[in-house]
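Researcher: For the record, we're logging two predictions in this thread. I'll number them. Prediction 1 follows.
Model: Prediction 1, sequence and structure:
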Amino acid sequence: MRRKLKSGLLLMLAALTLFSQNSFAREAQTGIVTADGVNVRALPDREAEVLAKVALGTELTVISNESGWYRILYDDDVGYISKDYLFVNASGSRGAYVQTDGATLRGGPGQDAYVVTKLYAGQGVKVKAIIGEWYFAVANEQPGYIHRTYLTMTESTTAAGGSRLEMGMEGAEVKKLQQELYDRGFITKANITGTYGANTRAAVLDFQKAMGMEAADGIAGPKTLNAIYDSANKLKKETANLTKLKGTVVLLDWFKGGSEWLNKGARFTITDVKTGLSFRARRFGGWYHADCEPITAADTVVMKRISGGKWSWNRRAIWVTYGGKTVAASMHTMPHMSNPTRSNNFDGHFCVHLKNSKVHETSKPCPRHQACVQSAYKSGK
């Protein structure tokens, strides 16, 4: 009986081993390293210990995919390589983007081969195979060969539905992007260089955040480019808060938490609902409402633009953003009475009213201010 049981267990273990080996054989793939000095790490993390560095063209056995990483075998050790640096052809293609204008797709893997077509920075291609330092790729349905130095590989099996511009790219498409960012106020004219550097990345990141994009990474992918080039999208740097804050505006009673929230000394952002312009202000006093002043001379300039170039007692619907909250409010722009800060070029202070706040002179709510508070609330819903 014991012999039979032992024999049965051995057969089961053998079967499991064989199944495991066959399963591994089915799952294992070969990947080719696409850059020089690529790190093999102990864990799927860019901060993990580096086990080894592998050269361009090295073939590695891929065990599995793990969220942006390949688990691989290297010299009988198990490690991880970012998917950005390993070409695995099981799916038939890998997406890549051209780095610079004038890169050529050729009829063979060599600089002497005839030119099939010229490519531009940011153009998406499909890489089908790697032959030494050359990629066999398809661009605009035309097959050919392109040297690896002209491409940036991605994890995707396709080049995500269009162009993508990022750090290091150069060419007319980059310049076009920079011109649009300049027109929207996100970069200066000096940054229109045709080279996607740190300033362009920062400008794209600012634009993405202003648009409320989830994947704000400073890379101008298809969604970002569509938003930037959309003529119906009027987003500019100076009006970015208006777009970003819509849907977050709340009503807050001045006497039920409003005065404590916008405390004396608070520095906050005011966004004018009509123009979309924003400036910074500070509350320094007030009991029935907030007595405020622009923080700097530059803030005073924006405030005067909001007011049509001249100071006015006319009430305006505004949003006040402070401490992670945006509240419906009202203000006028006329400088009067106390003038705590001379350097801001605002000769006095102005008043900010929340829901149910009052005028100091009458100790009653101002109907015009309260109407603007309600208007600001409706506009921000």
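Researcher: Logged. Prediction 2.
Model: Prediction 2, sequence and structure:
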Amino acid sequence: MSNVQFEELLEAGCHFGHLKRKWNPAMAPYIFMEKNGIHIIDLYKTMGKLDEACNAAKSIARSGRKILFVATKKQAKETVANMVKEVNMPYVTERWPGGMLTNFFTIRKAVKKMSDIDRLIESPQFQNISKRERLQISRERAKLEKNLGSISDLSRLPAAVFIVDIMKEHIALAEARKLAIPTFAIVDTNSDPRTVDYPIPANDDASKSIAVVLKAICDAIREGQAEREMNKDRMEEEIAEMNAENAERENDEENENRDGRRRRVSRKNNE
């Protein structure tokens, strides 16, 4: 459950939707009213949906899996990069590389190429090539870093995808749906929430609105990661205790066997 209060959502402007003429009828359940030709989002519905999304994100983080965050619009790029980096999740804030999910093997090859370039730069051989070639290699490395740097640790498909503005990131949404990957998204009044597994009705254009929703999701992920660490420590303690008990039991059995052998030898000698 998120810790976001109604007042926080209100102050961040999460309730401001698009013009009435741009609305998607599927958003009707989440619209409170119309004012001056603009739809106003029902923030109580936002809170309920945000709680659902936070619980799901926490569960994914607790299992040790990854959520890929996608936000290439100007208002969200910096916010997403800063917040998501803190919880060690992959993100895409530049152009979405088509086929990133549906053709994941090719993307992994590009990431491997980036690693190969890193090894080349660190090797003595790099200094032996011409200055022009070094410059070309450095430029290629910078381009790969810009597009793929944040997903370099993503060794397999993500467990879920979080999207800011599904209208702009429709390709990412389509790829996730094709692969049946659960999706989270901030959906504005011009979007279709039925295409998302965990829609969060809110303003997806204001940076403050995006930040308050994203913070709630990242806090939930952080809680899930903390619980995973606690469970891991507890499991290690239980294993250590079990090993100690087994060692003690084996030691007792060995002592009993030794005493039995002594008694048999003593009895044989007496005979």
